[in-house]
Amino acid sequence: MSLRRVYAIVLRQFYLLKGNTSRIFPLFAWVAVDMVLWGFLTKYLNTVVSGGFNFVPVLLGAVLLWDFFIRIMQGVTMAFFEDVWSRNFLNIFATPILISEYVGGLILSSIVTSMIGVLVMVFVATAFFKLSLFIYGIMAIPFLITLFLFGIALGIFGSALVLHFGPASEWFIWPIPALISPFAGVLYPISTLPGWMQFISRFLPPAYVFEALRAIISGGPVSGISLILGGSLAIAYILLAYLFLTNVYRHALYTGLIARYSAESLS
């Protein structure tokens, strides 16, 4: 793998942002709106619920972590879509770049762009709604790592789907976080779900993260095995997603589909 080629992919995304400032606005605007909306909701709940329970670390903290996961996933897919929308995908792979180098560039681009949103979220949550990430302690690190890895996995998987079915299928990718969220237990315990949904939750790394988050807030013990299982699942999904992408890429290359790539069709 050539780090210089990986850097070239990242540099292309930088020039896209630099050349059009309207691309920067979505990196932080919607996450800021989410923080404000959920922040005021948690403040309201704190005023109507007796017992002194603080909803800020439970709800607002969960939304912050979930938005972090979404930013990571969309950071990968958006970098991929930029090449699709500009009809630049074929040009890129006419060069000696490897698929692993291209994916590495997408991941690094996602880290850079998502950090903008994360910093805005943390600033709004802490400055206006008194959310302290220190309440989660050292456990905040495995939380973020697990969500980061799973976001990368879904980003790669979504890119592979669009490469296989065509640019028009990008609308299948945007709803993925919303479809996962009911099973991930972002705002409520997994135990509240029916049995068949709980079974699906066992295969979703975020479910382990948010269950552990609620355990910390309630003062209960956090299962280290559960967090290890969640992280292991996330790593496994990255490997499977990358394998899927490479297979789709080879198929598109050998069949000539990559040369007929257009936004007007699904194949």
Brief synopsis:
This protein is mainly α. Helices cover 73% and strands 0% of the residues.
How would you describe this protein?
- The chain is mainly α and 267 residues long.
- Helix content is 73%, strand content 0%.
- The chain has helices at residues 3-19, 25-48, 56-85, 89-92, 99-129, 140-165, 176-184, 195-201, 205-218, 224-255.
- The chain is globular, with a radius of gyration of 20 Å.
- The two termini are 30 Å apart.
Give a quick set of tags describing it.
globular, 267 residues, mainly alpha
Rg, nearest Å: 20 Å
- Pick out the low-confidence regions: 262-267
State the separation between the terminal residues, measured CA to CA.
Answer: 30 Å
Give the count of helical stretches: 10
Class inferred from helices and paired strands? mainly alpha
Shape assignment: globular
Assess the beta-strand content as a share of residues: under 5%
Helix content: over 70%
Q: Which helices and strands occur, and which strands form pairs?
A:
Layout: H1 3-19, H2 25-48, H3 56-85, H4 89-92, H5 99-129, H6 140-165, H7 176-184, H8 195-201, H9 205-218, H10 224-255
Helix pairs in contact: 1-5, 2-3, 2-5, 3-5, 3-6, 3-9, 6-9, 6-10, 9-10
